[in-house]
């Protein structure tokens, strides 16, 4: 399912117009993104949680040349599946 399909499903099930459904989806994703940018953890009980993992700088290798390369520290978003979602997917 992509973003447009999500908007269409919300429109069909809630009776909202397409533009209202699109606005709800945008608000949800913007709020999720802003929380992660601010270093907050986002938890949707029974479904999933999103959080940021921080990685230290390390020395890697360029696979083409074999040269050593310093990889800068970075932050990456992570998704962790909730127990209820795991069980629903496993039982279908």
Polypeptide structure, described:
By secondary structure, the protein is an alpha+beta fold. The protein has 2 domains: 1-40, HU Protein, Chain A (Irregular); 46-92, HU Protein, Chain A. The chain contains 3 helices and 5 strands; from the N terminus they run ααβββββα. The protein has helices at 3-14, 18-37, 83-91; strands at 42-44, 48-55, 58-61, 68-71, 74-81. A 3-stranded antiparallel sheet has the order 1-2-5. Strand 3 and strand 4 form a beta hairpin. Helix 1 crosses helix 2. The longest helix is centred in the N-terminal third of the chain and has 20 residues, at 18-37.
Characteristics of this structure?
HU Protein, Chain A; 92 residues; alpha+beta; two-stranded antiparallel sheet; three-stranded antiparallel beta sheet; elongated
Short description:
The chain is an alpha+beta fold and 92 residues long. It is built from 3 helices and 5 strands.
Total beta-strand segments: 5
Q: Which architecture of the largest domain does the CATH hierarchy give at level 2?
A: Irregular
Largest sheet: 3 strands, antiparallel
Question: Which class of the largest domain in CATH terms?
Answer: Few Secondary Structures
Task: Give the number of domains.
Answer: 2
Q: Treating each run of at least 4 consecutive H or I residues as one helix, how many helices? A: 3
* Sequence of strands across the biggest β-sheet: 1-2-5
CATH topological fold name of the largest domain: HU Protein, Chain A
Choose one word for the global shape.
elongated
Contiguous runs where pLDDT drops below 50 for at least 5 residues: none
Determine the fraction of residues in helical runs and give it as a percent range.
40-55%
Radius of gyration: 19 Å
Alpha-carbon distance between the two ends: 17 Å
Mean of pLDDT:
94
